[in-house]
């Protein structure tokens, strides 16, 4: 590139810049504007009827995240963009009856290990659910050690429960310090490996049998692991602690085990 084009004419005469250079400057200005428009101290709280609109808005502001909520009366889903700090401040002050909130686990964003554990208690009576979770954790920690040479610790675990008389329902989140998977599809691939390992060792390790439950489908009852493997799809909505589903009375609350011993409802 000519020095006259980069610095300007030494005599103060305006230099005609190539169109390609002007286009580049235009792109740079737009990019810099996106970076400087957002001040982390500014309040961001924007709602959208569609998830793609919320994600597109969030991408313009590096410090924001996408949430989802259900309107209390209708159950209609809407999407919200805010910072974690601003969201938690308002969420903390909200009437618990209208907390129907989820975080959107965005595609191509770093992600921690998470599980959605559930089964119909009417078809699976007298199950020791704490023992089932403990066995699963042991299998996951073994897989982390064998695959990544990571030694697991219980203080990494957040365990949340929203079980009712008819349904066992628990969320399990394993947050390894300073480490995350590339995105939730990679978490899903790791979980599939864990499931395959459980199935392969089931005949020789009878504790693993306890992770299987009876599930009713159209063709009749079947034997299944108690993990929902459909929750690793892109831009998945995952319910937040202290929230209930719209129209339901079961809130997702800490179990007082692992990391949740000191966590209390606001």
Automatic annotation (TrEMBL):
Enzyme Commission no: 2.7.7.102
Domain of life according to the entry: Eukaryota
Reaction equation(s) it catalyzes: DNA(n) + a 2'-deoxyribonucleoside 5'-triphosphate = DNA(n+1) + diphosphate; ssDNA + n NTP = ssDNA/pppN(pN)n-1 hybrid + (n-1) diphosphate
Domain C962R-like N-terminal AEP: 82-250
Gene Ontology terms for molecular function: DNA-directed DNA polymerase activity
GO BP terms: error-prone translesion synthesis
InterPro entries: AEP_C962R, PRIMPOL
Protein name per Swiss-Prot or TrEMBL: DNA-directed primase/polymerase protein
Organism: Zea mays (Maize)
